Amino acid sequence: MTDWSVLGTLQAVPALDRPDLLGDPVAHALKALDPPDAALVGVAEIDPGLADTAQFCAAYSSPLDRSANCVVVAGRRGEDTRYAACLVLATTRADVNGLVRKRLNARKASFAPMDDAVELTGMEYGGITAIGLPEGWPLLVDSAVAAAPAVVIGSGVRGSKLALPGELAARLPGAEVIEGLGR
Question: What sequence ranges are listed for the domain YbaK/aminoacyl-tRNA synthetase-associated (predicted)?
Fold first, then answer.
């Protein structure tokens, strides 16, 4: 069991015990993890209207500096578009036009349009998360997230949040820890 106290006043249960609180890609990805790793991930039901990070943290007394946002970035070079997900602490912003653009070998990088991010990930906007991303996508994890004892992330839907150790986020499929990704 891990420390799920980052969820503030919420009571978490093992995520695989409540697949109804997970987006389909998230549930499939958690089932594919080694069982000891999957057991480190907790889920708690929330009011979907409070899914945005600042509102969630205020409503449930979760520390903002232990919430991690997952943003989908589209990098373009000519007609080629490459996608990546970035996991950074909510108190920072992903260095999209610097580190991410270079990692994607793109001339231009920006946040992916909402409709594209939702369609490509199979997750709800506001619940897109690092677990269950499309195969082949890099997951760029800020070193501060990787070093955190526990972080709160989305669950693939707006009606719940996940808690997991930062080191597990750094070991998810496609994950690359990057110093200074969040600024």
Answer: 48-167
**12-38: per-residue pLDDT in tens?**
999 999 999 999 999 999 999 999 999
What does the buried/exposed string (b/e) look like for 128-143 if buried means 16 or more CB atoms within 10 Å of the residue's CB? Answer: bbbbbbeeebbbbbbe
Task: Please tell me the distance from the alpha carbon of residue 101 to that of residue 116, in angstroms, as a whole number.
Answer: 18
Q: In this structure, what DSSP letter does residue 4 have?
A: -
Q: Which two tokens stand for residue 24?
A: 């389909």
Domain topology for 5-173:
YbaK protein (3.90.960)
Residue 102, SS3 per DSSP:
helix
pTM of the model: 0.96
Q: Are 84 and 138 in contact (CB under 8 A)?
A: yes
Which residue blocks in 71-131 are alpha helix, DSSP H?
A: 101-103, 114-121
